[in-house]
Specification:
The chain has four helices and no strands. By secondary structure, the protein is mainly α.
């Protein structure tokens, strides 16, 4: 699980690397069966890392949770529409 922005960046960099590997194999592999076998692990790893990124983006860091209502109020000219 991604714990901070440095780990986020590392994961995003790894996703790009895996995607480049799949793109390379797509350009160079001529046998569809071999291609699918070669990229299946890369694609599974891309999916796993993208899920981690989505989970990381789903939550604010604990230190920022307290300021959320204030940020919403400032962004909406002082009116808090809903705080959950």
């Amino acid at each position: 699980m991604i714990a901070n922005d440095d780990e986020l960046q590392t994961t995003l960099d790894r996703i790009v690397w895996f995607q480049q590997q799949v793109a390379h194999l797509r350009r160079t592999e001529t046998n569809p069966v071999n291609y699918r076998a070669a990229v299946s692990g890369f694609i599974a790893e891309i999916d796993r890392m993208q899920l981690e990124v989505r989970e990381y983006f789903h939550f604010l860091p604990a230190a920022e949770d307290a300021g959320t209502a204030e940020q919403v109020a400032q962004a909406d000219s002082g009116r808090v529409l809903r705080v959950s």
